[in-house]
Amino acid sequence: MRILVLGGAGYIGSHTVYELIDEGYEVVIVDNLQTGFRKAVHPEAVFYEGDIRNRKFMDSVFEKEHIDGVIHFAASSQVGESMRDPLKYYSNNLCGTEVLLESMVAHHVDKIVFSSTAATYGEPENIPIVETDRTLPTNCYGETKLSMEKMFHWTSLAHPLRFVSLRYFNACGAHPNGKIGEAHNPETHLIPLILQVPNNQREYISIFGNDYDTKDGTCVRDYIHVNDLAQAHILAMKYLCDGGESSIFNLGNGVGFTVKEVVEAARRVTKHPIPAKEEERRAGDPSTLIASSEKAKRVLGWKPQYAELETIIDTAWKWHKAHPDGYQAE
Ligand code: UDP
Predict the structure, then answer these.
(1) What is the pLDDT of residues 163-183, one digit of tens each?
(2) DSSP output for 246-284
(3) pLDDT of amino acid 285
(4) Are 68 and 2 in contact (CB under 8 A)?
(5) What distance in Å separates the CA atoms of residue 237 and residue 14, rounded to the nearest whole number?
(6) Do β-strands 205-208 and 276-279 pair in parallel, antiparallel, or remain unpaired?
(7) Does 93 sit in the ligand 1 pocket, CB within 6 Å?
(8) Ligand 1 mean position, distance from CA 43 (Å)
(9) Percentage above 70 pLDDT, the chain
(10) How many angstroms separate the most distant Cα atoms in the chain?
């Protein structure tokens, strides 16, 4: 079975490609390398450098390769940037998906698994969050992901297309094989930023906000290992191949940690004091996001393997220690 992975040179995309190839799938990758890295491309995957907004290019890929299903990670994903440059997000995320769907429909490719986000919910009404809860994004990134879900929905009513949308909570960690890991430029995520301190790349970690309504005043998030996310994509593709209906699933561990607890866990893992400074809140941050992933467990048979935060941080630490500049210096 041949899977087209869009954005397969990015963080979650590259981990999913490694898992797919380990399980015997043939993989074709499309990535424009705007935020992905050639070094993250699995050596056994067929790789096309190009942009999903280019219809001719996408048509040529579907014509050359016999594609059974698509896994779609090719999107911009930084909350702060999406507020400064919303049109970039509309162009890359929405226009890109529109062109992709036109090309898929024209080439009769009828299955797609799509990376969505907890940012589609905005400030939650209930904790843990279930898939039927209100979606009211508080940033442009979440808004475009929600619109992408709706684009899949309406297209699936008009054409023979089925989709699974996976709403991730906080993706983190690195592949235990040590070959791939998290690398963003600029880095904005908590765990890689914390680990820059013991890696001598940063003097302290900033804690954004200490007056949230949580047990220690700092934001609570649900941290989920990237390999567990990768497995969920494979299960979602199997579900579609078995005739499953279009659906949306949350993916998280169902356990929340405060920013201070994450810093503490990183101190234990790295045995470094990791100084922290409490600063102003970051705009647009909801205070608590915790997933209910019961639906993914029940319907897809998903079983996350990395439940312990320290184990997750340990995989990240091994990657960052060995690759302090990500893929850049290699
Ligand atoms: N955060 C922080 N300091 C940092 C980066 C992030 O305190 O240098 C906080 C952020 O405010 C949020 C949590 O850590 O509450 C997780 O942020 P991240 O950007 O990793 O993921 P998000 O939850 O925004 O998707």
Answers:
(1) 999 999 999 999 999 999 999
(2) PEEEEES-S--EEHHHHHHHHHHHHT----EEEEPPPTT
(3) 86
(4) yes
(5) 16
(6) parallel
(7) no
(8) 33
(9) 99
(10) 57
pTM score over 0.70: yes
What is the three-state SS of 128-142? CECCCCCCECCCHHH
When pLDDT is cut at 50, 70 and 90, the band that residue 197 belongs to is very high
3-state secondary structure of 135: coil
DSSP string over 111-127: EEEEEEEGGGTBS-SSS
**329: pLDDT strictly greater than 70:** no
Q: Which amino acid is at 163?
A: F
Query: d(Cα 170, Cα 225) in Å, to the nearest integer?
Result: 8
Question: Are the C-beta atoms of 320 and 192 separated by less than 8 Å?
Answer: yes
Active site residue 141: yes
- The pLDDT confidence band at residue 107, using thresholds 50, 70 and 90, is very high
Residue 242: CB partners within 8 Å, gap ≥ 6? Answer: none
> Ligand 1 in contact with 202 (CB < 6 A)?
no
- Cβ contact 256:291 at 8 Å: no
Q: Residue of the nearest CA to atom 25 in ligand 1?
A: 170
Catalytic option among 25, 141, 239, 306: 141
What is the identity of the amino acid at 100? L
